Amino acid sequence: EKQPVMQNLPHRPLILKTGVRFKMTVRFLANLPVFKDLLKVKPIFDKDVEEVKTVNGFRLFDFNLDDSKVLDVDTPDGAMMAAFEHMSLKEKKARTKGSCEPYVLNPLMVTEELHIIRFVAVLHLAGETLDIEASSLPVVVISSSNQVPSAWASIMWFNMLSTSEPMNLSLFVDPPPLSWQQLASLLSWQFLSMGQRPLDQDQLSMLQDKIMDYPEDLVHWNKFSKDESVWIWIDGILDLIKKHLSDLWQHGYIMGFVNKQRTSSLLQNKPTGTFLIRFSESIRDGAITFSWVDHSTGEKRVHAVEPYTKKELSVLSLPDAINHYTLTTQGRSSNPLVYLYPDTPKDAAFGSYYTVPGPSTNKNMKEYVQRRLAVVSINPTPPPSPPRDVPQMDVDTVDPNTDFFQRLEEILSDLLELPEWSNL
Amino acid sequence: EKQPVMQNLPHRPLILKTGVRFKMTVRFLANLPVFKDLLKVKPIFDKDVEEVKTVNGFRLFDFNLDDSKVLDVDTPDGAMMAAFEHMSLKEKKARTKGSCEPYVLNPLMVTEELHIIRFVAVLHLAGETLDIEASSLPVVVISSSNQVPSAWASIMWFNMLSTSEPMNLSLFVDPPPLSWQQLASLLSWQFLSMGQRPLDQDQLSMLQDKIMDYPEDLVHWNKFSKDESVWIWIDGILDLIKKHLSDLWQHGYIMGFVNKQRTSSLLQNKPTGTFLIRFSESIRDGAITFSWVDHSTGEKRVHAVEPYTKKELSVLSLPDAINHYTLTTQGRSSNPLVYLYPDTPKDAAFGSYYTVPGPSTNKNMKEYVQRRLAVVSINPTPPPSPPRDVPQMDVDTVDPNTDFFQRLEEILSDLLELPEWSNL
DNA sequence: ACAGTTTCCCGTAAATGC
DNA sequence: TGCATTTACGGGAAACTG
């Protein structure tokens, strides 16, 4: 008895939110129609889990569920399974009174508590009584969606550590560290499953440098999920990709994880206007910027624009932001972004994502002057040390005898960079 | 008995959402401490409301509430009152079965059902039993916040019609129309209470023209709340003001309700660059635009930019949008907005609301090139019929002998409009 | 005071009912 | 099938609680 003759199906819930409905399905592995109508299965939350009551003082929950179900033949292949569709959890708030033995103060955060759901069935057969039982993999129970990232961190850490050994629901009382290899594959998998593209070696190296002091170190749970919130930062980026950058990420146009130093060294020997796209390392909620190189002042300069946040990307897509970015220096405006590193003309990479101003679909809009949002920067490079003998230009004192031809050349350059010129 | 010796206090709830907690307070008007501890008050939902069961088949609700309360002396002035803090409603879903008499099909929308809450108390005094009862004003019960605007329309309509006559909970079975005067004051009041500024005569006239076919007409409920959704449109604007424009509205910088024709006639004799701010008449969810006049081509032209939506205003405030609006015509860029109608220089009106790029508060931002969002339009006025004999300027064929001084003047004008110039 | 946690509830999307 | 209405629940903020 209690062999795994029952199995809970692949898409188990991983994070359960109190008050939110969830579903689970169990399948009877021995596909014998004889058992049909004989098996009554019932899910039980945290059955026999000792952590609940004593060891760590896990929270207790009321478990609302469908009535016990008889296994049905539901699937095309005739397997016997039961689906519980209306289950939900609610925290039981009666920890203080009615108990003589004092509860142990829970040293874990709620997102570190691992719970399980067991499916139990009793089979009466040939005068014998068989107890059949199947357990889900661990789940984390949260009460608010702001706990999802932490809960997900726990799930990932557990999955990376769980071999075939018995489940340790108190894993986070003394969480084992991960090797860099383990963490790297864990992280890469997140980007692959969420954004259809894993992390490459360069990206992983950057993360390794950021997370670990010595390459041979092990990564500790606290470092990953608590102290420096590395995971919270990465999760923000995953969410950014999901919401606003899935295409660009999937096509590999976003280098993303590159630090400033490496950005500099990658760009410094490239032509002016070469740029790459990086995630902000300082903004927790996920933000993205681009860095470009400019040799026009004679010396190499690498600039990065203030990162774009999710809120901004929801009204201005990154391709459009790149397409229309305008930098004004010394009164001259132009778009400093020309080649996506290493040498792809920006339109070749992003052209297909530009919003075409196209004929307004809305009739009422036709009478309005069309517009678009754009991002504008002013003068990032005041000449390092302006020669004192060359007076700064000033509106009031401008000399109308300034070299007109040079100025005209600049004007014409500006005009050339306005793609709309040909439509005039 | 049943005189109004009890009163429910001013801030009654007007719209109740099922499943959402609400509070009500009743006060005993006769302030006699003798009654203290003798009065038990209980709120009852839709007590004796005949519409509920038969006339119109109103929905039925379960009413969750605090236990009956004894009137307490709570207030500074020693008045007796009781506060019910945890009341909520839940729709009762058992209309079909168990009843022999078939229910009348409800001809009303749920937001037209008017319900009431009665507070009842029994006073045993000197051997006599006194029934005391107080009713709330009508409330509308909704189940989702997408019903709030419709519900609010009902509340307003009721309030405008309710004189001292007994409450008619079936008012919307045959809703009386309003005179324009009534509707005007109803609307103006909304803008006053929400935005600290009522509607002026010009704004009301525009609305009157839009809503009524003949000035002497009455406004019917269907026109206001159903067929053309006039109210939904206005409510979207109220929400836009509340979320993004409260200061500007309060200071009267937003003309808002002006149709195109009047916009044209107001602006046509004003200098080029005079503009006014209008609400979009076509976008239901609340949007705002500006119209400006341009005499520079020799003939009067009034343009309006594609309206800004709430989403856009959440990342770019209207003052900033005005401050940095850039129009590119014939390769020349400038801000066409100069004077807020009638003749206020735009910075005098909006200057104090501009976002100062200021020293980045965030240390980490210092290394980034600062940027701002801006709105850009291209060439709204291809010359009506360009004289064939004057060749259009073209990048490849531009004559370097073009009047340099004139071009320089233009450049300088451009530069003058860049406030950042002085920082270079 | 404060951080971790839960509750509350708006607003949107999806589901439901008629 | 479409529209009216309700339900579901993510997400941000307030409230709670030790």
What does this structure look like?
Chains A, B: Keywords: Activator, Cytoplasm, DNA-binding, Nucleus, Phosphoprotein, SH2 domain, Transcription, Transcription regulation. The structure is a homodimer of 424-residue chains. Chain A has 11 helices and 22 strands. The first copy, chain A, has helices spanning 50-55, 148-161, 180-195, 201-211, 221-227, 230-250, 260-267, 310-313, 318-324, 346-350, 404-416, and strands at residues 6-8, 15-17, 22-28, 40-45, 61-64, 69-70, 72-73, 80-91, 117-125, 128-135, 140-142, 178-179, 218-219, 274-279, 287-294, 301-304, 308-309, 326-329, 332-334, 339-340, 344-345, 372-378. Chain A is elongated and about 90 Å long. The first copy, chain A, starts with 5 loop residues before the first strand and ends in an 8-residue tail after the last helix. In chain A, 32% of the residues are buried. Mean pLDDT of chain A is 80; it is low at 96-103 and 383-424. At the A-B interface, strand 22 and helix 11 of A face strand 22 and helix 11 of B. The structure holds a DNA duplex (18 and 18 nucleotides).
Keywords:
424 residues; DNA-binding; 5-stranded antiparallel beta sheet; 6-stranded mixed beta sheet; homodimer; disordered C terminus; 26% helix; alpha+beta
Question: How are the elements arranged and paired?
Answer:
The structure is a homodimer of 424-residue chains.
Chain A: E1 6-8, E2 15-17, E3 22-28, E4 40-45, H1 50-55, E5 61-64, E6 69-70, E7 72-73, E8 80-91, E9 117-125, E10 128-135, E11 140-142, H2 148-161, E12 178-179, H3 180-195, H4 201-211, E13 218-219, H5 221-227, H6 230-250, H7 260-267, E14 274-279, E15 287-294, E16 301-304, E17 308-309, H8 310-313, H9 318-324, E18 326-329, E19 332-334, E20 339-340, E21 344-345, H10 346-350, E22 372-378, H11 404-416
Parallel strand pairs in A: 2-11, 14-20, 18-22
Antiparallel strand pairs in A: 1-3, 3-8, 4-6, 4-9, 5-8, 7-8, 9-10, 12-13, 14-15, 15-16, 15-17, 18-19, 20-21
The structure holds a DNA duplex (18 and 18 nucleotides).
Subcellular location (chains A, B): Cytoplasm; Nucleus
Protein name (chains A, B): Signal transducer and activator of transcription
Domain SH2 (chains A, B): 249-370
